[in-house]
Amino acid sequence: MNLMRLLRGDTDAPEWYDFPGGVHPPENKTQSLRGPIAEFPLQEEYVVPLNQHIGAVSVPVVEVGESVLTGQVIAEAAGFISAPAHAPTSGTVTAIEDRPVPHPSGLTTGCIIIRADGHDTWRPRTPWAHLQDHHHTDLLARIQNAGLTGLGGASFPTAVKLAADRNHVDTLIVNGTECEPYITADHALMRERPQQILRGIEVAHELYDFRRILIGVEDNKPDAVSALRRALTAIPAELEARIELRVFPTRYPSGGEKQLVYLLTGQEVPAGGLPTDLGMLCHNVGTLAALADAVFDDRPLISRITTLTGNQLPWQGNIEVRLGTDIRTILDWAGYQPDPNRAERIIMGGPMMGFALDQRQLPLVKATNCLLVPTEQELPTPPPAKPCIRCGQCEQVCPAGLLPQQLMWFAQSHEWDKAESHHLFDCIECGACAYVCPSHIPLVQYYRFAKGSIRREQAEHRQSERARLRFEARQARLEREAAEKEARRRQRAEAARARQAEQATTPTADSSPADPVAAAVARSKARKQASQSAAGRATATVSPGAPELTREQLSARLDSQRRRLEKAEAKLAAAAPEHQKAMETTVSKLREQIHKTEQQLADRPEREA
Amino acid sequence: MIILWSILALLFLAALFGALLGYASVRFKPEGDPIIDQIDDILPQTQCGQCGYPGCRPYAEAIANGDPINKCPPGGESTIQELADLLDVEPLPLDAEHGEEKPKQVAIIREDECIGCTKCIQACPVDAILGAAKQMHTVIASECTGCDLCVDPCPVDCIDMVPVETSIQTWHWQAPQPDYKLIATDAGRSGEAA
Amino acid sequence: MLTPSSPHAVGNQSVQQVMFSVWAATLPGFAALIWFFGWGYLINAVLAVATALVAEAIILRLRRRPVWFFLGDGSALLTAWLLALALPPLAPWWIPVIGTLAAIVFAKHLYGGLGNNPFNPAMVGYAVLLISFPVEMTTRWGIPAALATEAHSLLDSARVIFAGLRVDPALVDGMTMATPLDVYKNDIATLDAAELRAEPLFSAGWRVYGWEWVSGLYLLGGLYLLWRRIITWHIPVAVLGSLTLLALLFSWNPDLRVPVDLHLLGGATMLGAFFIATDPVSAATSNRGKLVFGAGIGILIYVIRTWGNYPDAVAFAVLLMNFAAPLIDHYTRPRVYGEGRS
């Protein structure tokens, strides 16, 4: 394409740049675009999971039994990368518990369950008419409190993206590509509410003052393009001058963030980096429309547009539905009849990147852009995998320029470091490789397995590193304590030796050297005294090496020993026969101790004075 | 004459390389023993002592001195494999004498039963138990290595080792199973690695 | 509980289809072979395919793999088929049988079966035969029908193949010869180009000489595979390009060396470039790698044909480059999106 342009001598900046790879799966978009977006009726119960976004799980701020109003915050963001959740309708919180949620693992997670009162009474709202009347800090806070996440499928908190450094961002990329087959939620939005998207752009522009704003749409959505063009004529000229609407050929996965950045600008997001590294922000059209709702109408993210499609559904189209609505109820509403002859397959998301849901009741979440219930003819079950014949088709279609089959070999043989050096983490899991694989190898699952294993290994390694540090710190502490103890012991021993020497020399100095017997008696007396006082110290719970006890200390000890004796006697009286003996010993020991202390106390006065 | 020259040349070369080697051995003398650090890095740092050494580093030193690499139950097969790769020896099966490979565990103190004896605190090799004498103790779960050294000293048996369960946050995809293994003629070889 | 990972949509290609398409693409060339050189090729093909299927089934059984699942992928069939196309049509019956056994048992399954063989199985079979039985492999090529003194039936071919020299040496002599490449290479030492071109084998022109037709139809089949996107252009273009370039450089004087048209059309070049070298299992994978791989094959074909002992060289060239494929892959990794651009 670019070569052709060169040959024509066309040197102007091209409308779009050709990214490598990609596939053309059947689009299957028309069946869900026949009618306008339908409003899904209110339900009796809503289940709001606490982890509808990438990042930390939000924290409930309501209690069971509390009544809530539509749009009220029921769970707050926990930390920077997180998002709050709101009551989808007014009602009562009936439970906060673990429930199954749409997730490939099939595991449960914390959810707030709300029983609707049917009135759908909104919390008080304060709409804004003009952005210019408000400070940026207030605007950002409003966005943060609205619980917005990327509605394209990845569910990254929008407020976090919009917190990027103002000085480094000059381009807004608006993703209206919706390249995945079947899904038409963004298409329907662009067709019916283009002005809402442009108002969302206005909000982002207010924050960043973009130099240029590029809207990218695939050429299979001509009605969306013309609706956007019409809407563009109605916005302020200052903003309109910076907006470019770019239409490019349909090819999966042109809507991948990195692919779209290249398509529109010819620049590549650095490996492991973000579009902000190139001074770009990338937002999905649905997210921008929700941003406009949140900022102008003070309407947090409590509903979204979801595509219902697949030939197993008699009604196919787009619905605007409150988050937390039961997916089964939605499918029943669309007339879904399970085919008794085959295993049920309900896919959340599209056929290329979505995941299959199980039989249970699951709530619709912020990421649910599509519910696809295909027949076996539409999306046949993949045949069993054959060995890789190294045909290289996967490599031809990989939009990231990876070697998919090499990555698969590495994943199979658990060679994680090789997988990483072959850029496993640059894989966007678009599934183009597995789509074309003639051996029908579940390549993407291998990559996910490898990525998950590597992440877990890294986490384990971090943890073991921390354990090592803690162990070493403890080891050092124990050594230090032992050394200190040893030093104290030596000090004590020296002091004792010194005392002994003193005691030994004093008598010899005083008494006549002609009286060795008297000296020996005195020495033995001194020894006895020393050992007696040591025994006294041992029975007392005072730390060894402390100086001789004062009178006050001794009497305090006496008091406490008497108290203990009292208690022990009381216990002895109440004790069961089998404990009687033990208690008796305790009591007699205590009595002995008291006796000793009394003696010591009696000895003390003369020295004390 | 030629012989003389060649002997001289060889002598010169020998002296030169000897000097080079001598210089290198002094100049690039390794600080500590890097192989012990590398082994220690692979060990799981549970400090559980199941290997018979008082901690992971002593075992690392023992391995460097020729001790078998299969005495670490918490690390299990993967650690043995890594050690075998590092030391270029045959991987051995885990020595059952030192215990079995178990899923990762964490200690939990049944707090109403705790009498505050501090025995577990003294036993914990990574200081992951908080508490004081006569006060209830608790385990810092994120720091617990699951070594279970605190279980035995507890006089009232109020410490449970519970396996760490997978949550949505820690879950990840498993490797696909090759479909053809499920076909009848393959039934006999299910134990064989792919 | 685990649900299968995305993508849930799969493309419409399968291993069987790939193998079948490659097989189908050889059919015009195969038909031309029979048309010009007699029924020997058909007998070869039947022998080779039957041997391959039986050997594959037995080995799968021994390896305790599901037999029908793997037999149905068509890879053994294609290996045997390509080998049969490359073998001299009137060689004794045990030539295709031994060659196929070597290809399936040694080159394929002893390395782990489909997808794991580092060398092209058909070419391993061919090389084993050429080294072990050089006489049978060089002298039992078919005489183009137009040059033969009398027409030969399927039965004659069968007699030559199954009974051979001991029974009917005259018939064998009457039906077999060396390949034109071989003839030209040997005779140019004593004759000049004009004299050689006057020989019946080279003078009869396009319609009878046969090899050109076969090569042309292989080219057509190769273009079909390109159109179906079963192969990419890189390997064939590199093989043919490098061979042509070398032939133009070193064979500019037809009095000394085999000229370029014979290089391209007179031997197994087209079969090799489109059907053998493009075997994905043993070739390089990245696009740049395929160019290097193909160019290497082209160069080796020319070098071995010109300065080596063997009249044709596709098998050895492919095998030698199979050795190099992992190395080529290592040095020709494509640039990953977002990695610094030079």
UniProtKB/TrEMBL annotation, chain A:
<dbReference type="GO" id="GO:0005886">
    <property type="term" value="C:plasma membrane"/>
</dbReference>
<dbReference type="Pfam" id="PF12838">
    <property type="entry name" value="Fer4_7"/>
</dbReference>
<feature type="compositionally biased region" description="Basic and acidic residues">
    <location>
        <begin position="481"/>
        <end position="500"/>
    </location>
</feature>
<dbReference type="GO" id="GO:0022900">
    <property type="term" value="P:electron transport chain"/>
</dbReference>
<dbReference type="InterPro" id="IPR011538">
    <property type="entry name" value="Nuo51_FMN-bd"/>
</dbReference>
<dbReference type="InterPro" id="IPR017896">
    <property type="entry name" value="4Fe4S_Fe-S-bd"/>
</dbReference>
<feature type="binding site">
    <location>
        <position position="433"/>
    </location>
    <ligand>
        <name>[4Fe-4S] cluster 2</name>
    </ligand>
</feature>
<feature type="compositionally biased region" description="Low complexity">
    <location>
        <begin position="501"/>
        <end position="538"/>
    </location>
</feature>
<keyword id="KW-0677">Repeat</keyword>
<dbReference type="Pfam" id="PF13375">
    <property type="entry name" value="RnfC_N"/>
</dbReference>
<dbReference type="InterPro" id="IPR017900">
    <property type="entry name" value="4Fe4S_Fe_S_CS"/>
</dbReference>
<dbReference type="InterPro" id="IPR010208">
    <property type="entry name" value="Ion_transpt_RnfC/RsxC"/>
</dbReference>
<feature type="compositionally biased region" description="Basic and acidic residues">
    <location>
        <begin position="559"/>
        <end position="570"/>
    </location>
</feature>
<protein>
    <recommendedName>
        <fullName>Ion-translocating oxidoreductase complex subunit C</fullName>
        <ecNumber>7.-.-.-</ecNumber>
    </recommendedName>
</protein>
<feature type="domain" description="4Fe-4S ferredoxin-type">
    <location>
        <begin position="378"/>
        <end position="408"/>
    </location>
</feature>
Automatic annotation (TrEMBL), chain B:
<feature type="binding site">
    <location>
        <position position="147"/>
    </location>
    <ligand>
        <name>[4Fe-4S] cluster 3</name>
    </ligand>
</feature>
<keyword id="KW-1278">Translocase</keyword>
<keyword id="KW-1003">Cell membrane</keyword>
<feature type="binding site">
    <location>
        <position position="117"/>
    </location>
    <ligand>
        <name>[4Fe-4S] cluster 2</name>
    </ligand>
</feature>
<feature type="domain" description="4Fe-4S ferredoxin-type">
    <location>
        <begin position="135"/>
        <end position="164"/>
    </location>
</feature>
<dbReference type="InterPro" id="IPR010207">
    <property type="entry name" value="Elect_transpt_cplx_RnfB/RsxB"/>
</dbReference>
<feature type="binding site">
    <location>
        <position position="124"/>
    </location>
    <ligand>
        <name>[4Fe-4S] cluster 3</name>
    </ligand>
</feature>
<dbReference type="GO" id="GO:0046872">
    <property type="term" value="F:metal ion binding"/>
</dbReference>
<keyword id="KW-0472">Membrane</keyword>
<feature type="binding site">
    <location>
        <position position="120"/>
    </location>
    <ligand>
        <name>[4Fe-4S] cluster 2</name>
    </ligand>
</feature>
<dbReference type="GO" id="GO:0009055">
    <property type="term" value="F:electron transfer activity"/>
</dbReference>
<dbReference type="Pfam" id="PF04060">
    <property type="entry name" value="FeS"/>
</dbReference>
<keyword id="KW-0997">Cell inner membrane</keyword>
<dbReference type="GO" id="GO:0022900">
    <property type="term" value="P:electron transport chain"/>
</dbReference>
<dbReference type="InterPro" id="IPR017896">
    <property type="entry name" value="4Fe4S_Fe-S-bd"/>
</dbReference>
From TrEMBL, chain C:
<dbReference type="GO" id="GO:0005886">
    <property type="term" value="C:plasma membrane"/>
</dbReference>
<keyword id="KW-0472">Membrane</keyword>
<dbReference type="InterPro" id="IPR004338">
    <property type="entry name" value="NqrB/RnfD"/>
</dbReference>
<keyword id="KW-1003">Cell membrane</keyword>
<feature type="transmembrane region" description="Helical">
    <location>
        <begin position="123"/>
        <end position="143"/>
    </location>
</feature>
<dbReference type="GO" id="GO:0055085">
    <property type="term" value="P:transmembrane transport"/>
</dbReference>
<keyword id="KW-0285">Flavoprotein</keyword>
<feature type="transmembrane region" description="Helical">
    <location>
        <begin position="93"/>
        <end position="111"/>
    </location>
</feature>
<keyword id="KW-0249">Electron transport</keyword>
<keyword id="KW-0812">Transmembrane</keyword>
<keyword id="KW-0997">Cell inner membrane</keyword>
<keyword id="KW-0813">Transport</keyword>
<dbReference type="GO" id="GO:0022900">
    <property type="term" value="P:electron transport chain"/>
</dbReference>
<feature type="transmembrane region" description="Helical">
    <location>
        <begin position="233"/>
        <end position="252"/>
    </location>
</feature>
<keyword id="KW-0597">Phosphoprotein</keyword>
